[in-house]
Amino acid sequence: MLRRSSVELLVTCTMGLEDVALEEVRAVANVRRAELERGKGRLFLEASSLAEAYKILVNAKTVDKVILKLLRARAASLEEIYERTVAVDFSELFEHGQSFAVRTERIGKHDFTSLEISAKVGRAVLDSTRKRVKVDLKQPDVELLAYLRDSDYFLGVNLTGKSMHARGYRVYDHPAALKTTIAQAMVRLVGWDGSEPLIDPMCGGGTIATEAVLYARSFPIQVLKRTFMVEKLAFHDEKSYREAISESFSSANLKKYPVFASDISEKHVSGAILNALSSYTLDSIVFKVLDATKLHEKLDFEPKYVVVNPPYGIRMTRLGYVPFLYRAFLRSLKKASKDFKLSLITPRAKLFGKIAEEEGLSFLCEKGVMHGNLPAKIFVCEFSRG
Questions:
Q1: Each residue of 241-298: pLDDT tens digit?
Q2: Crossing angle for the helix pair 18-28 and 180-189, nearest 10 degrees?
Q3: Which residues of 281-291 are buried (b: 16+ CB within 10 A; e: fewer)?
Q4: Bridge partners of 342?
């Protein structure tokens, strides 16, 4: 059990979506204080107890990792990093015989490497704790995360394990799959509440449709598909953890929502169906093989919310295909619905922005994000014929 009246956490998320993640975290847990670092994908939070950290782990769908802060201080040298670290009481983290590893991220100019930081922190842990522990870089029981940005030194313990964007439900891997946490954020940004139809007409592996249903149902998919590293920590409170899971399932629902997903590729639609089946959302999604430039000819309902991750054209050799696709898609969508809201992600931001403006869409917000290694932008737009 943690001997603290409150816990301080570092919650990481996709860079550019910090405000979306913070809004969600505040909705699922009691957060006393929050420091948001825009463009860096970091939220520094103070929660009332470890139980609130469990609620974030179990419920949050727009965050990547939840890290318990052990220290944050100024450190400009390896010696200072050691001095700050060796003063930490690590006994509350470990059981006798457990293993640990230190993972380091270093940003800025330093005369030492990330590996040297990891080694120095590891030495400090071994010198500080009186428990018998060992280093295991491959499969540690405890993972310490060290971040050094210039002289800002943060050390924490990973409560999550692998990133929470890895939901575990993907049995079909689309070659250009959208990160699940970005899909979640796009659904939230467009303002969909589950009462009107939402479509993804270029669904690929079905991530957006699947995440939309998980969002509407408040369904804790990650609890069923993974384990968290916090469960191996000495201070882990199994009772509080199980209560968080029980409360989450009690508040979830299994209602059917009007979600439609389509793609021009029969192979991708078949894969998306498998992913929806794996995520327990198939009963709420209608899948079709459909050309997104012919929505007005095929849909028998008016889509009111559209969330889409269209092809970017990076691997395509057909000159002019992406501009044609974006324009033809928007024109078909305008014929299919007299008013709608659209959330779309693309690295071709100038191109889409120009076409959307020419097609009469109004821009509600734009957010720059990193989609894998690509700088991209999420557009939230609306259209109304009046």
A1: 999 999 999 999 999 999 999 999 999 999 999 999 999 999 999 999 999 999 999 9
A2: 80
A3: bbebbebeebb
A4: 306, 381
Strand, coil or helix: 221: helix
| Residue 36 β-bridge partners | 43
Provide the angle, in degrees to the nearest 10, between the axes of the packed helices 50-59 and 238-251.
40
| Other beta carbons less than 10 A from residue 150's beta carbon | 12
What tokens were used for 196? 């009107």
CATH number of the structural domain spanning residue 44? 3.30.2130.30
Q: How far apart are CA 261 and CA 288, in angstroms?
A: 6
Please indicate, yes or no, whether residues 114 and 189 belong to a single structural domain of this protein: no
Positive or negative, the CA dihedral 81, 86, 87, 93 is positive
Cβ atoms < 10 Å from Cβ of 206 = 34
Type of residue at 43: L
Q: Same domain for 131 and 205?
A: no
Please tell me whether residues 325 and 192 are part of one structural domain. Answer: yes
237 falls within a domain:
no
- Residue whose tokens read 């390896």: 78
Does 353 lie in the same domain as 213?
yes
Specify the amino acid at residue 326.
Y
Largest Cα–Cα distance of the chain, in whole Å? 71
What pLDDT, on a 0 to 100 scale, did the predictor assign at position 317?
Answer: 47
Q: Which of 48, 71, 197 is nearest to 125 (CA)?
A: 71
pLDDT in tens, 149-192: 999 999 999 999 999 999 999 999 998 899 999 999 999 999 99
> pTM, whole model, 2 decimals?
0.94
Indicate whether 138 and 263 sit together in one domain.
Answer: no
Q: Are residues 134 and 185 in the same domain?
A: no
Number of Cβ within a 10 Å radius of residue 222: 23
What lies within 8 Å, CB to CB, of 243 at 6+ separation is 51, 54
* Amino acid at the residue 314: I
Shared domain check, 210 and 80: no
pLDDT band at 313 (very low <50, low <70, confident <90, very high): low
Whether residue 91 is found in the same domain as residue 143: yes
